[in-house]
Design goal:
Blueprint (H helix, E strand, L loop, with lengths): L6 H19 L11 H9 L3 H6 L13
Length: 67
């Protein structure tokens, strides 16, 4: 798995995921709040399966320098 999510997007995904899961855990929103686990996981890992399938990347760092 190659990282395909940039730093800013990762932070947004983690925050949005935590907010949704927190709202679901407190009963503020319904069961759909648990879907926040998806952006939370992809933000923490840095890899998004649909991005990989479509060849899309928001990561500015392509490859580490070869030595």
């Amino acid at each position: 798995m190659k990282i395909n999510i940039g730093g800013a997007e990762r932070a947004i995904r983690v925050v949005a995921g935590l907010v949704l899961v927190g709202l679901a855990a407190t009963g503020t929103v319904g069961w759909w709040g648990w879907l926040g686990l998806v952006p939370l996981a992809t933000g923490l890992v840095g890899w998004c399966p649909p991005y990989a399938m479509l060849g899309f990347s928001t990561c500015s760092v392509k490859d580490a320098p070869k030595t």
